[in-house]
Amino acid sequence: MAGQNLFFSKSDLAYAELRDRILFGTLPAGSRLAQYDLAESLNMSITPLREAIRRLSSEGLVTVDTHRDVRVSVMNSNEARQLFEVRLSLDPTAAELAAQRRTDDDIATMQAAVDNLLPVTRQWGEEALTAHRAFHQALYRASHNDVLIRLLDDLWDKSDRYRRLGLELPPGDEPRTRDLQEHHQLVSLIVDGRATEAAQLMRGHITHSLTATAISALEDREGARVT
């Protein structure tokens, strides 16, 4: 995210800042981007901001109409399901590779991350989401597959908007308690080198994730609008 990168141009800075605001919901889905106001707030001209907007448009995070009006892309069940389907493939692969390749440093990082976890509910909000992301990042980085890590970094970024939508739903104490238990089980399996079991548990973990809950809610909302 923005605080973790080195910026080489104002366009890079604008891109990272706007991307963070979109993913964290500071710029809500469907909202119009007041480009000149944003450029002023970022202390830059309109040109680097428009370059950043083109990059965000290529990622599907903003839409630009024929009048150059820019809006944050709305969230929809189709995109959420596509992100979910890719996670179902990549996250178990990362868990399997992590169980085969984890180092002592990886194990220490995962154990520290799992100790910091909180129930992902409205009560804990952003703090819980941040800790949850840090845990999964520690796990998939233990795969030591740079291509997979980059793909999952981007995938998790784009899924964050849907996780935050999931927080608006009834918290469901039992599923969230199960999540915490599964995180601890994943670490144990990876530390023990039980690759196949780690992949299987991760697949089940993703299947019952907050994103899956958000998909169902979005489908219900979209169905209600149609009828």
The percent of residues in helical segments reads over 70%
The SS-based structural class is: mainly alpha
Examine the coordinates and then state which fold CATH places here, giving the name of the CATH topology of the largest domain.
Four Helix Bundle (Hemerythrin (Met), subunit A)
Radius of gyration: 19 Å
Sum up the overall morphology in one term: globular
Average residue pLDDT: 86
Do you know the CATH architecture of the largest domain? Up-down Bundle
How many domains, as an integer?
2
Strand order of the largest sheet: 1-2
Proportion of beta-strand residues: under 5%
Which regions are unreliable across 5 or more consecutive residues at pLDDT < 50?
Answer: none
Order of helices and strands: HHHEEHHHHHHH
CATH superfamily of the largest domain: GntR ligand-binding domain-like
CATH class of the largest domain: Mainly Alpha
Per DSSP E runs of 2 or more residues, the count of β-strands stands at: 2
Report on the biggest sheet: 2 strands, antiparallel
| Through-space gap between termini | 39 Å
Number of helical regions: 10
Protein name: DNA-binding GntR family transcriptional regulator
InterPro entries: GntR_C, TF_FadR/GntR_C, Tscrpt_reg_HTH_GntR, WH-like_DNA-bd_sf, WH_DNA-bd_sf
Keywords: DNA-binding, Transcription, Transcription regulation
Domain HTH gntR-type: 8-75
